[in-house]
Design brief:
single chain, 162 residues, alpha+beta, Aminopeptidase, eight-stranded mixed β-sheet, 8 strands, 28% helix
Amino acid sequence: MPNRLLAPAEWKAGNKILHDVFVGENHVSPSVAHKLTIEENLNSGTWIGSFDSNNTLVGLVLLTSFSEQAARVAQPGGAEIRLLAVLPKYRRSSNASDLVGYAEKWSCLQGRTTLTLSTQETMLAAQHLYRRLGYRELTDLGYFSMGKRFVVFQKVFKSSTS
């Protein structure tokens, strides 16, 4: 399915997907979801969407850089996948992998040297995805937030001179 940058007018649909996935699957409470999707992210970062054949948004990734307020685990010179969500009906295909791949390409084009992310310890499918895509766990950067343990992963991009 095609991926592209989301226009600000599409962010509302993106927020709905984030809410449906994170609240609907009991990963966060509605109040925390509101903070994550509205307060921190609405005017920051780069929103990348995945669309079905009817041009309906079915998944998204929110990409931030080290210098943006919403970034939590980005390293200097790097970018961070702040949120990744794909509607259940569109999982078990290449949507999540394609979104991460687009985020990697976008990060490289922006001159970023790493892409870092965190995911809840209980989200084993997400951890499997990141490992399969070449991310390595940074055990020393794991943290607790909202009463949950988060695992941090990072991918280092090869420089154009190597």
